[in-house]
């Protein structure tokens, strides 16, 4: 069993700087002893893997918060457009208040990493399973990357788009 499998099977989480907690379902005594021995034997590797997982989740959450603002602004504009149509089609409706920021303005404020994450997230939300998988893969690469160069992220997005085009070409034939 790998450390990652151990973490997944035991739902291990960091407890404090030097300890982790694992949640074992109702197991028989020999299975429980096996997991406990494994935990003791590979404690250092398990802690390192949990810390990496935690760092990944923090970085991913930071990126998600940035693009969540974009999705919120898009919803504001959808609501505005709906209410504006109601206003046009009704004699006694009040004109809705226009959102203060356009989607284009909000997107322009994103850094290259956040923008790449937004594009990859759009793919990941696709109804097509293969396209969504390609998007998820790109999102992971973006989160893992520590580069500050915009070219790194544009390369990841280009690769994502290329994979999707290859898939589409394959499906044509």
What pattern of helices and strands is seen along the backbone?
HEEHHHHHH
Distance between the termini: 41 Å
Largest sheet: 2 strands, antiparallel
Strand content: under 5%
Which range best describes the helical content: under 10%, 10-25%, 25-40%, 40-55%, 55-70% or over 70%? Answer: over 70%
- Total number of helical segments? 7
Shape verdict: elongated
Mean pLDDT: 91
Q: Provide the spatial order of strands within the biggest beta sheet.
A: 1-2
* Unreliable stretches covering 5 or more consecutive residues: none
**Gyration radius from CA atoms, angstroms:** 23 Å
How many beta-strand elements? Answer: 2
Structural class: mainly alpha
Write the layout of secondary structure elements.
Blueprint: H1 3-10, E1 13-14, E2 20-21, H2 29-41, H3 43-89, H4 103-108, H5 112-124, H6 129-144, H7 150-172
């Amino acid at each position: 069993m790998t450390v990652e499998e151990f973490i997944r099977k035991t739902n291990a989480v960091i407890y404090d700087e030097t300890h982790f907690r694992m949640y074992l379902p109702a197991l028989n005594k020999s299975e429980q002893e096996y997991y406990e021995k494994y935990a003791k034997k590979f404690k250092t590797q398990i802690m390192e893997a949990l810390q990496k997982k935690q760092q990944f989740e923090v970085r991913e959450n930071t990126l998600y918060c940035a693009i969540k603002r974009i999705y919120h602004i898009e919803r504001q504009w959808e609501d505005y457009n709906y209410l504006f149509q109601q206003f046009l089609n009704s004699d006694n409706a009040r004109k809705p208040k226009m959102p203060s920021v356009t989607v284009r303005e909000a997107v322009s404020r994103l850094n290259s990493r956040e923008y790449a994450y937004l594009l990859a997230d759009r793919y990941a939300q696709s109804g097509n399973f293969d396209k969504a998988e390609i998007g998820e893969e790109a999102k992971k690469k973006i989160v893992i990357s520590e580069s500050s160069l915009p070219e790194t992220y544009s390369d990841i997005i280009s690769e994502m788009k290329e994979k999707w085009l290859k898939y589409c070409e394959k499906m044509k034939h």
